[in-house]
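Q: Could you fold this chain for me?
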Amino acid sequence: MMAPSSGPGVYLLLGPDRLRKRSRLEALANACAPNLLDRHQFSAAECAPAFLAGLIREQPAAGRCKLIVIDDAHRLSRECVEVLVRHQEVVRQLACVVVMTEHDVEAKHPLTALRPCSTVEEFRDAAPDAKQGFALVEAIGRRDVAAALQAMNRELAEGREAVELFGLLAWQLQRWLTVGHLLERGLPRQQIAAATKLQPWLIERMSGELAGRPTAWLRRMVQRCWERDVGAKTGRVIPRLALEELIVELCLVSSPSRRAVA
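A: Sure. Below is the predicted structure, expressed as structure tokens.
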């Protein structure tokens, strides 16, 4: 079996197995050995064509190669893909560009234009565990800070990245927001279950978790989660620390009974 290539060039890493993709990314980083100033990682949603073109053409601050990692590549614009294709020769001299996505890329997606000029690797063997993250969201639902942080540490130790857990928390907040909005409108539990496709027992449990968590607060938390996620992906915040702060904030919201006692 031929060893995977490494060094300058464009690498298109596809598929849901983030652990193996992260290992591959680390191998590419070790092969290129970029200086800290020459490591760049950001989400495709925040990638502008002019910025990307300038980053590619820029000489490494130190050493021979830059490492440019573009995550959520299914959100990469056609113009940004064209920049990568147009500057492929420059990339082979100055940079290792790693483009990653978990999503399937349709034949008409702009990203397909990268295939002829990149090393394409697929990581599709992961079987997602339906129970992953349940301990974390359940502990947050109970407002149990210690259990939530322990669950976070287990998830990270097992290979999940902080940005994945931000996504999990955003998903849970959106579910709470939907159910909370319907509860505030006074809809019966059965009607809410039918509208949301959630089991009645889960609606009942979530109604307890939502005590002291009004929809206005939930909307603010969705925004905070998104801001921390973007900050982690763009290097503006330390991912683990930002995740811990968000979890503590989600757990320490007061319930009506606690306010009454106070």
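A (continued): The CA atoms of residues 224 and 246 lie 8 Å apart.
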